[in-house]
Amino acid sequence: MIAFVTAGEFLAPNALFGLPAPLSLSWFPMRVAVLERSNGDVVLVDAGLSAAELAAPRRELGASGLLFFVRGGERAAAAARLAALGIAPGRVKAIVATHLHLDHIGAFVDFPNAEVITTAAELAAARRYGTRQGYVHVDALVRSGRVRPVLLEATPRHGFPGWLDLFGDGRVVLLDCRGHSAGHVAVLLTDPVAGRTALCAGDAAFAPHEYRALSLSPFARLNRFRESWLRESWGHLRAFESAHPETPVVLAHSKDPAGDWGRYASIGGHE
Ligand SMILES: [Zn+2]
Description:
Layout: E1 2-13, E2 25-36, E3 42-45, H1 51-55, H2 57-61, E4 70-71, H3 78-84, E5 92-96, H4 102-105, E6 115-119, H5 120-129, H6 138-144, E7 147-150, E8 163-165, E9 172-176, E10 185-191, E11 196-202, H7 208-213, H8 218-223, H9 227-243, E12 249-251, E13 265-267
């Protein structure tokens, strides 16, 4: 099974993402992908904020919570959304982080049996830059002993310049999609039983028009790690999308994911 859950939403002006009605404020999802493996284990791509952070963002996130208006509360956290899918937190054995920014990995604390998979480049950047670049959880992650930094094979796969087949069965493949952050990956999920695939591209773009029209939104400009890498990654996303029209490119914060989205279970959001 592949499913997507909205683990809370945050408020931002449309202008930040280069969307129509620039002066209006909208709620944007924090999206988490869920893959159930044949052995019953569950893999997440990103995890959103923790239940405690969604319940009290200003208390839990400190200064980072001040400009970050979130809604949903703890019932919107990934753990609660998974419960609605009949999945207990203990079954989540891996969280593959597209990157380690706060809104993607805070909820690792809610999944005590999960290893956190990230690239060595991303973990190094998180340790180096810390909270001031959005890596609020890096110390807690390292202290937990549950982070597993990985290296990507530096050969092309699916049109991306580096890759790692996490379990060796082709179902969870990390693809080098750097630029938004130093070690950002896109994650290709495959459910062979249902014949479904999805490319989880995290924050490689905030809305599809960015990588399709090569137009950098103000928010992407504000928090990109390296623009030349980001533009190269957009080229790979565009090429992937045209070569694989059956595989939706799923961005973490887009209101309407690209591709044939309706075939996937999705929970939360659109309140
Ligand atoms: Zn990010």
